[in-house]
Design a protein that fits this description.
36% of the residues lie in helices and 23% in strands. The protein is an alpha/beta fold and 404 residues long. Strands 1, 2, 3, 4, 5, 6, 13, 14 and 15 form a 9-stranded mixed β-sheet that branches. It has a 4-stranded antiparallel β-sheet with strand order 9-11-7-12, covered by helices on one side. A two-stranded antiparallel sheet has the order 8-10. Bound molecules: zinc ion.
Length: 404
């Protein structure tokens, strides 16, 4: 089957031997290898490939621009040591669904496209869904060009190094105007489908979420000679902030995570001079998210004062809540029902390109069951039978949407 073949070809690309996780960061060597895989797979299916001004990949069955295209896909980049399914499952399923439509003699009445959006995870430049945000104008090109990775390389420099023209990035109204619907298939990043005993689900909406950077500035000193009372240790208010975030999230039925932290100078026998840490916060609605973040900031300020440390907070990105197009969502549900699949409708706390695109074009998502719910980890998994059920579901959806 086409899915298994394409999946096996992509599987080794960008995988770290030691952890088994993926390190597919945008505009790196493993990203180039993913792009080459995309082009090869599309060409094998007789699709025309294209890279837009923002570095997003497209493969077209039919010529885009005239009739409103039906687009499916996802992303190929990963978080550090991410799993195999988050992103690639949607792209591989898209190609497999097109192969199934072709084999079945389907003739689309409108163009069908496969998209792979760049820097969806924001793992290299810090802004999630950067490729789709640039496409839709949700981030300004100047701001994007100046984003830096952890080595101080800007997006503009990284794109140029990869042979791309960074001066051309920005909204692409012509491309957007030719798309009538976007359907993204994604591995579920939770256990709702497993608990319901359903292989496939349809997304209801995405919680508002964002990233905030906390800079704690203290004073580097000797860990062996500086009395506790004389220290200005930024690690202490940072630690208090992590615990406060957990409590506040618990209180509001929301989610708050500190997972990325950089301490300087980073020596085991020296008190840190600075601690930089990132809060990822998600909540059912915007008011709750605002309250959560302001309470975490307050806790950080109080703890910093207590330890003679300065703290600054900066919002790096925030995504408003997304309700997917109700008409498209209901249509997906009824197409799947007619095909014999009862697909429950689920909300999610995870951001996706479909959520960014939903601001401009009707968008929807299909989820594939994740037995453990684990994601953003090498342990992320989906059973092959469920992946194949995902391809069958996506094939039915594309056949319906592109039929007239
Ligand atoms: Zn994803």
């Amino acid at each position: 089957m086409m899915f298994a073949k394409l999946w096996a070809e992509l599987l080794p690309v960008g995988r770290d031997e030691a952890t088994g996780g993926y390190r597919r960061y945008s505009w790196t060597g493993s990203d180039a290898a993913c792009r080459a895989w995309f082009a090869r797979s599309a060409t094998q299916l007789g699709l025309r490939t294209d890279c837009d001004r923002n570095g997003n990949l497209w493969a077209w069955w039919g010529r885009p621009g005239g009739q409103q295209a039906v687009v499916t896909g996802s992303h190929l980049d990963s978080v550090p040591d991410g799993g195999a399914y988050d992103g690639p499952l949607g792209v591989v399923s898209a190609f497999a669904a097109i192969a199934a439509l072709r084999d079945g003699g389907f003739r689309p009445a409108r163009p069908i496209g496969v998209a792979a959006f760049t820097e969806e995870e924001g793992a290299r430049f810090g802004v999630a869904c950067l490729g789709s945000r640039l496409l839709t104008g949700a981030v300004t090109p100047d701001v994007a060009r100046a984003l830096q990775d952890r080595d101080g390389v800007t997006l503009a420099e990284a794109m140029v190094a990869a042979g791309r023209d960074a001066s051309a990035i920005g909204p692409d109204e012509e491309l957007l105007a030719g798309i009538g619907a976007y359907v993204e298939l994604h591995v579920e990043q939770g256990k709702a489908l497993a608990d319901l005993g359903a292989p496939i689900g349809v997304a209801d909406g995405i919680w508002p979420h964002g990233r905030w950077r906390f800079d704690f500035a203290g004073r580097a000193d000797h860990a062996g000679t500086t009395r506790l009372a004389d220290r200005q240790d930024p690690m202490l208010p940072y630690a208090a902030t992590v615990l406060a975030a957990r409590d506040v999230a618990q209180h509001y039925g929301a989610l708050a995570t500190f997972a990325k932290v950089v301490a300087q100078p980073g020596a085991a026998n020296a008190i840190s001079s600075t601690v930089q840490a990132w809060l990822d916060a998600r909540a059912p609605d915007e008011a709750t998210l605002d309250t959560l973040v302001s309470e975490v900031c307050q806790a950080a300020g109080t703890a910093a004062d207590l330890h003679g440390v300065a703290v600054r907070q900066q919002c790096e990105s925030v995504s408003p809540p997304v309700s997917f197009d109700p008409g498209l969502r209901d249509r997906l549900t009824s197409v799947l029902k007619a095909a014999g699949t009862a697909a429950p409708v689920l909300p999610t706390g995870a951001g996706h390109d479909a959520g960014v695109l939903a601001a401009r074009i009707p968008a929807a998502m299909l989820f594939v069951r994740n037995p453990s719910g684990v994601s953003h980890s090498p342990a992320e998994h989906a059973e092959m039978a469920d992946c194949e059920a995902g391809v069958v579901a996506l094939t039915a959806v594309l056949a319906d949407l592109a039929a007239q």
